[in-house]
Amino acid sequence: MNQSQKHIDRKRLVILGGGISGMGAAMLGAQKGYDVFLSDGGDLGSAFAKALQKHSITYESGGHSMDKILDASLVVKSPGIPDTAAMILKIKSEGIEVISEIEFASRFTEENIIAVTGANGKTTVTSLIDHILNVAELDHTTGGNIGKSFAQQVFEGESENRLLEVSSFQLDGITSFKPHIAIILNITPDHLDRYDYKFENYVASKMRITMNQDENDYLIYNIDDIAITDAIEKLDIKAQLIPFSMERELKTGACLLDNNIHINTHNSVFTMPTEKLSIKGKHNTANAMAASTASKLLQIRKETIRQSLTSFEGVEHRLENVLKINKVQYINDSKATNVNATYYALDTMEQPTVWIVGGVDKGNNYSELYSLVNRNVKAIVCLGEDNSKIVEAFGNCVEQMVETSSMEDAVRVAYKLAQAGDNVLLSPACASFDLFKNYEDRGRQFKNAVRGL
């Protein structure tokens, strides 16, 4: 029996990475009759270890035992492990299939999948659709790149609809994952360090969301985004194309008409005044368009969609108003881990702004922020281990720039620089891993520091 045949005949599942997605895949694998082994190169949290023990799943942490890993018939890897990692290349060279957790979960469900991707806005759109589905009392689960993993959802039981936020890293590991409704919000340079610093590789990764769709499925996409429209022209997409636009009038799809969101699908029209949206800013109008279009395709009543769009409260760490102190508004936008997300944030600032920026640079081009910084930013507080690129980019744009290396220090400096009527905005444009566990940790530390002023 050759090596690849051995892998087909047995059901030994190896999970690489013990995070939320790995735990979900491990429990689902055990439920479906696999002999499961989980291997985590770092420290496995005590709660995760207890969950694995409860389900009698064998595991290791603090390193990888290649002999045990290469005994797999199937490997599910964490989105954080790149395809170029030596371990992954070795596994694939042995003829063992390596997939992502969303691909693994999708093999055990025929349910309706709504999947949202994009460089920016995907958490807001996923959360907004979730809110609409809750108001409509539609049977669904929500998760993926946020909240519960897809595998965890499938493990816990059936549901008519699976709403998922999906990242490019998750899409890289799919072969048959097939959403009924796929949404691509935008594609701007992000995570280029994982894609050989080639934007076209990142675009190709995002477009995988539609690769298995057929003519009964829908692709909702931003027709204003040149990267998306160019990709659509080159690809043989089978899904029904539903565009949305902030810039042009569309006969089919979603657009702006006389300050109203106007959506026409299947000869049925939905309208909603933009002034009644609970979340403000041009980018959020586009987000509302995408979420409303998906909800309309799910045949949710128009009045329910309108009601939901007026009552949605937004997402933590995304332009989140924290406190107003001495007439200065403190805003937490820690989720802005790339330049494009920060562009949206700076564009919504209507008062002079003290901007807290910095972290792990992922190949950022800051030049597109110059006009907004010149217009809206009065002072910059750098927050990172290495602020040289930010200092070089914006040193001539503002009169005051201060370097800091802790959140408490950054907030104290911003407090001194701000005057009544100003904003203090944390919108880092960078990943958080130099000083924080993740963007959530960074955002919570910001809120705690503000509350401690």
UniProtKB/TrEMBL annotation:
Location in or out of the cell: Cytoplasm
Record-stated family: Belongs to the MurCDEF family.
Protein name: UDP-N-acetylmuramoylalanine--D-glutamate ligase
Protein origin, superkingdom: Bacteria
Enzyme Commission number(s): 6.3.2.9
Family annotation (PANTHER family): UDP-N-ACETYLMURAMOYLALANINE--D-GLUTAMATE LIGASE
Lineage: Bacteria, Pseudomonadati, Bacteroidota, Flavobacteriia, Flavobacteriales
Single GO term (MF): ATP binding
Record: residues binding ATP: G118, A119, N120, G121, K122, T123, T124
